[in-house]
Amino acid sequence: MTTQLPPVSVQEAVISSIVNTILFDVFLWGVYTIVYIGTLSTYLRKKSSRHWVVIATISLAYLVYVIQEIVNWNGFAWHIVYSSHSQEDLFLGLVYGDGGNGSKWPTFVNDLCSFLLAGLADGLMIWRCYNVWDRSLRAIAIPCFLLFCEIVLDLVIILITCVEHLNPTTEQGFLLNKLLGASLFITFATTTLSTLLISYRIHTVAKEDITRSSKKLFKRVVEILVQSATAYSITTLANAIPTVISYTPDNAAPLFAAQTACYHISLFVAGVAPTIMVARVAFLDEENQSTSELEASHISDLRFHVRSTTLDARESKVENDDLESQESVVYPQT
């Protein structure tokens, strides 16, 4: 089947946006690597307790991002070598695959990586919410339902793509774009709701009878969580909006450029934002190691990895295992 090519000006704009995005991706990969190594080193050096769920999540997210970048760079290099005989061949190779009829496995791998990164980021946020709310399943019921819907949509996308041997029809392509957009909007809702629940819980605890320094600490924790979630939410929303806009001859080039840029930036932020948040909370923990034992009895109630917590500020007694032998103040871990 012959692929109808867009005007030459559109081809040039699309090729230029792909090349710029790939090169920018390499820069982001380097930034992410530095952030990941620095965060892991900081988190492992901290004197207070560490949680392996955090280490596993940020490490898996980084691994998924690396796989996605390797696939993108390998596909780009292959097309530059084998599909650059003419501008039309290069356009078809970069946008559609080999001459418009080739394998779509790089796109499939990219979709899997984006689904995994979004799931890891949302899952980690829900896990924080679960622990902050004293391991209450009721508190995370709606975020969990949204995450379930997100996973179902992702599985439907994967199923449709696999059934068509990674080469869906034009009609199915429109359907996949709509499903992808719905999944991204649900991701945005999940992150926003989880962040609001965490912030509300910390704000409620901070209103109790605790010291001024503890209230200041709670405020800083909320700021870190909200800033991290806001960056991820904004990029996710920006990635979702272009998927629901129809292509026309007039908007094809700018819309493709915007969609490509938003997609890659959102993947980067989905991985790096939770990682930076872990580093910031670890630094905050180290800065407050000299906090008094009285403050510890209040603040240790609000952490993400405790075995059991009591957030009623009227109770002054805290279990010995929650205080970890009262060696140091334990702050919310991410």
Automatic annotation (TrEMBL):
Mark the transmembrane ranges.
26-44, 51-68, 108-127, 139-160, 180-200, 221-245, 265-283
NADP as a keyword of this entry, yes or no, is: no
Sorted alphabetically, the keyword list is: Membrane, Transmembrane, Transmembrane helix
Q: Does the keyword Repeat apply?
A: no
Q: Where is this region: Disordered?
A: 315-334
State what protein this is by name: G-protein coupled receptors family 1 profile domain-containing protein
Annotated source species: Gymnopilus dilepis
